[in-house]
Design goal:
Largest sheet: 7 strands, mixed
Strand content: 5-15%
Helix content: 55-70%
Strand order of the largest sheet: 2-4-3-1-5-6-7
Order of helices and strands: HHHHHHEHEHEEHEEEH
């Protein structure tokens, strides 16, 4: 049997698809289900193709038919996220930068840098004062459902405003702030809480809420601990603990862009 270029491309594409599914499952905390699906597929191929057990093979074939529908229902959020990522307008950012004018690109970069500095400054001050905070930065996936659970702000990003919202006596300080397109869209929002058993017990509800939203979307979340003043970044289903101000600024500079 000869292996051609088409076969190599086919194998590479399948490997890339499996890698993407693996990463998606890992971010959503469903990695064990991914392993279970792989084991089932291996057993199915072994029974029906290699050992040619007809009766058992037919049973597995029926299970596969029903299982596909069950997986679609079970992973509807992940599937929705997959197609939203593919069709994201932010993926066209390269074309935007190519065809937009130089002056417009400079203004866009300046606006992004200003927003980053205001957020970083607010986080630095709140960290020093042990003020708890939960800041969600929307990316390509809409967080309209999350924003609707809080109070609409629709204001320019300002360090003073961020600190006032998360001030301990503020009625909105317990919820999350949502930032969209360079503006503070809403505050006092409720986030879905992650039930991942691998989260350290030392982390509180803010960290679980942050992990919950980044497992369901491509948002980035900044968490400031009220107990330790430590800064955490949640992104792509993972938590980065004890982030320095310099690391926070560097991460936000890569995330906050305007199309």
């Amino acid at each position: 049997m000869e292996v051609g270029i088409k076969d190599i491309v086919d194998i590479v594409l399948v490997a890339m698809l499996l890698h993407y599914v693996y990463r998606l499952m890992k971010e959503s905390g469903s990695l064990n289900i991914f392993y279970g699906i792989l084991v089932f597929i291996v057993i199915w191929i072994l029974v029906s193709q290699i050992l040619e057990m007809r009766l058992l093979g037919q049973i597995f074939d029926k299970l596969v038919g029903v299982g596909v529908l069950a997986l679609i229902i079970l992973f509807q959020d992940e599937i929705r996220r997959f197609f939203l990522t593919i069709g994201s307008h932010r993926k066209l950012g390269v074309l935007y930068r190519v065809f937009s004018s130089k002056d417009k690109r400079k203004k866009t970069a300046a606006a992004g840098n200003k927003a980053v500095m205001q957020i970083v400054l607010a986080c630095e001050q709140m960290s020093k004062k042990y003020v708890g905070a939960l800041i969600v930065i929307e990316n390509s996936m809409s967080l309209r459902d999350v924003s609707s659970t809080g109070e609409r702000i629709d204001a320019v990003i300002s360090s003073a405003l961020i600190q006032n919202i998360f001030f301990k006596n503020s009625p909105l300080h317990d919820g999350a702030m949502v930032i969209k397109d360079g503006r503070i869209e809403s505050a006092g929002c409720i986030l879905p809480v992650s039930h991942d058993l691998n989260i350290p017990k030392s982390l509180g509800l803010r960290h679980r809420a942050a992990l919950g939203i980044v497992q369901q979307s491509d948002a980035t979340v900044i968490i400031i601990s009220e107990e330790t003043g430590g800064i955490t970044i949640a992104r792509r289903g993972e938590l980065r603990l004890r982030v320095s101000i310099e690391e926070l600024e560097s991460s936000l500079s890569q995330i906050i862009t305007y199309n």
